[in-house]
Amino acid sequence: MFVVMIASECAPVAKVGGLADVVFGLSRELEIRGHVVEIILPKYDCMSYDHIWGFQVSYQDLWVPWYNGAIHCTVWFGFVHGRKCFFIDAHSADNFFNRGTYYGFPDENRRMAFFTKAALEFMLKAGKRPDIIHTHDWQTALAPVLLFEIYKFQGMENQRVCHTIHNFRHQGVAGADILWGTGLGRPEYYFSKDRLGDDFNPSAINFTKGAVVYSNFITTVSPQHAWEVRHTDQGYGLGHILHMHQQKFGGVLNGIDYEMWNPETDAHIHHHYSVDSLDGKYRNKEALRDRLLLRKDYKPLIAYVGRLDTQKGLHLIRHALFYSLWNDAQFVLLGSGPELGINDYFWQLKHYLNETPDCHLEIGFDEKLAHMIYAGADMIVVPSMFEPCGLTQMIALRYGTVPIVRAVGGLVDTVFDWDYSSKPLSEHNGYVFYQADYQGLESAMRRAIGLWNLYPEEFRRLIVNGMHYDYSWNHPGQNYLNIYEHIRHK
């Protein structure tokens, strides 16, 4: 099968968040299974060009229709850690992709609409006719609309689109000018509520809604989140249109890179270990304590690794820290927030706890330290308000670190409570709480700390259970292939 991914990010060359990891990880899994995958990205000036091998011009004169004229583009090609990537370089006064950073501009809708149009124009002109076009998030959500309304009449009638929504908060809401720019025109047609018309703004189109209507299949990043976005406010207004198209909507859990996250070979940790040799994990705990100047006592070490923003449950992260200290456990935090006020608060907390030998807060991001924490911690807290998929808990399980999670999104699909899960005991791998309050968090932490202290052999069994899970791209890869096969023949 020939698959083209169109995305605004791909790790490690252009990465802002988890979207980049998905595009790379899924593409690699599909290639391992013998399929041909090509990725189309914007050519940002701020990309990590040192991750591209054999960088060269692939298509010299691509003229992309735009408003009443056309924009001249060059398409570059290079291998990103083995993945075949094409980069759209727009020679325009708008300077779409040469702004020193990936996102955050007032003309974001126009930038990404142009990129999406250029990607399809490149496929058309270069004779690329993939079986599947896989698009991602609002940035490329206009692709199925453009394909169905324009490009299928120009020789691309056999292509099928799978669109993945990673984040429902950002949907691409724009005015009619985008319709004229991309050549769609006909505002009265597209402003219809059963096409692109935004349900909350009568003078706006919604890119993501368009993808739901026009794609052959839509996914989000976990089965539980697929239910949440249809039945709760986590759909951010798209619940109704998803319900209308639910026969072509489903959740596919993301995977993690099992080469990057592997305690048997991880270059960032001091002692390698596996499910059959857990002594190395305990030595990593001592190495982490040395690195962070923590007291070496017989007590559990609990961690938080991730962004510091409201989605992640800031009040619960803070409470987990103090609850750990009050219950004779140690706590390590690694993270930073997009908002200065949040960072400032945690800096103040760091200074307040600076003399505490059982606590360390690292405000920022440090790749090596993240690996050391996953390898050295006994437990990790993930108390999210919402979590479409979540990678933290999957990485923790891979490293034998017991996750304590709130029952939302992908956390529900990957963590099964030691005491209460209905699964066989050999499949219980962590602790789960439901309410986003202190009592809920404490109930799970109390049980986890209690098991560690009172029943160490049972806790070790819990570690082993978690390490036996496979949250690589193996299963998601097959799930996506099943979807591709399903829509290919429609």
What does this 3D model show about the protein?
The chain is of the alpha/beta class and 490 residues long. It folds into 2 domains: 2-255 and 474-488, Glycogen Phosphorylase B (Rossmann fold, 3-Layer(aba) Sandwich); 279-467, Rossmann fold (3-Layer(aba) Sandwich). The protein contains 17 helices and 17 strands. It has helices spanning 18-32, 108-125, 143-149, 177-182, 187-190, 207-214, 223-231, 239-244, 279-292, 314-326, 340-352, 367-376, 392-398, 409-414, 438-454, 456-467, 474-488, and strands at 2-6, 36-42, 52-66, 69-80, 83-91, 132-136, 160-165, 173-174, 205-206, 217-220, 249-251, 301-305, 330-335, 359-363, 379-382, 402-406, 431-433. The strands form 3 sheets. It has a 9-stranded mixed β-sheet with strand order 3-4-5-2-1-6-7-10-11, with helices on both faces. A 6-stranded parallel β-sheet has the order 14-13-12-15-16-17, with helices on both faces. A two-stranded antiparallel ribbon has the order 8-9. Helix 10 packs parallel to helix 15 (438-454). The radius of gyration is 24 Å and the shape is elongated. 49% of the residues are buried.
